[in-house]
Design brief:
Structural class: alpha/beta
Shape: globular
Number of strands: 17
Distance between the termini: 44 Å
Radius of gyration: 22 Å
Length: 523
Amino acid sequence: MCKLCDEGHPQDHSRRDFLKVSAAGSAAAGLGLFATRPAEAHDGEGGPPAGSGRPGRRYVIRGGHVMSMDPQVGDFVRADVLVEGKKILAVGPNVHAPGAAVIDARGRIVMPGFIDTHHHQFETALRSFLADGLLFNDGQPHGAINYFQYILGTFAPVYRPEDVYINELFGSLSQLDAGVTTSHDISQIHHTPEHSDAAIKGSADSGRRMVFGYFESAAADLDGFRGEYPEDAPRIKKQYFSSDDQLMTMTMGGEIYLLPQPQVYSESWKIGRELGLQVVAHIVGSFGMAPEFDKIAQGQGGVNGDIGFGPDNLFIHVTGMSDLAWQAMKDKGARASLAVPIEMNMRHGTPPILKAMQFGIQPSLSVDVECTLTADMFTQMRSAMALQRMFMNAKALGEPYAAGFPDLPLLTTRDVLRFATIQGAIDLRLDHKVGSLKPGKEADIIILDAEAINVAPLNVVPGAVVSLMERSNVETVIVAGKVRKWKGRLLEVNLNRLRRELENSRDYLFDAANIPQDLFRPN
């Protein structure tokens, strides 16, 4: 029986091959986490193309407003996208596709799926718990309910592997529903190898493209329990990520604030680079990270003073860092992921959108934590654009606080669309596969309803997507050629069952953490 939809389906060979799991013998398998995935939804009248994503199966998306996000391909008022198997074969007007199934995209916007470069998916059951909270208690007002004390220090330590699994699966499906075809799961829940296996399997069973970020095990303090991290990285890489031709890849967490510093990050950066993985770290000024970050920027970080930036680095937030560090990021090809709404809400520091642009670094966008804010990319794009334009408008108006701001052009809707698609792919080293609609790339595509009541009449495609749309406009979602959402409904998913499992996980977590459940808790 299918874990997601309670129906019998043939084995999905592509996902089975990609997992490469001889994990039938893993402890997580004993928990019933490794159920067979379905291969295809049952066709019906008006259903999706049969066998989408399978080798040799063709369909054409006809007559949509195509925004390719690739300057060589361009954009089209009306055009077609031909898909065979998992690849895009052609993009343009009147594509010849005899015998191919047809998806009618008239009145729709066709574009690449969104890419989220930083998301803590194991926290899905804790949605909205910290809506009024801050990152940590810094002694200033309003810090009593905070992320480090409650989410990482109280809830995270009581997670069981089955909690990890349902949180990862439900969070992945939710973002898939919102048009996020790729996410970088910053996973900090690796108490045991079974927890790690459950995190990977939960993401895999969603059928979405995922980058698995192997980070420390969350604990009550910065010198606390780190679980199997970082020593379990070679086992995870070999067992699950030995092939590049799969939906999931891996990065290595390399936090520079973990104690004892710098011993921990010296080891994690070394392991990550030996395994050929990107090394990723949260860089937050309010944590006092700037001095150590400057050392690494100068190639003098780590125990032996020999750790420096490289093109394999992705840094998250990057609030409060020096110009020296930003210049080193630019020079060495390091990447930046900004979570603008979270940074503004949780006191990470001012989102460094101006610094990134000043130093010529195109940032990607990320959602961070659903315990505080929504995980859709429409919110991220609007927030980044509004913040940067507020700063630049203040400078143009001569407001005193903006006098020292650099002279930068105003961000446009197309700019932030680029951040949320192709730049995300670049930052996760996936731009050879996804991020734009280009022949030869894998077909990660979303079809957006431009005739909906909140959008019609359509006048400007990038403007409509960024300034008007939200998740209800996401009509169809395709990952590696396979239709995963069709005309507003996720396929192969029993949401009622999964919702009950997530609620059961939530109830257990609150009870085990000894936190009262109160739907109207005072701020």
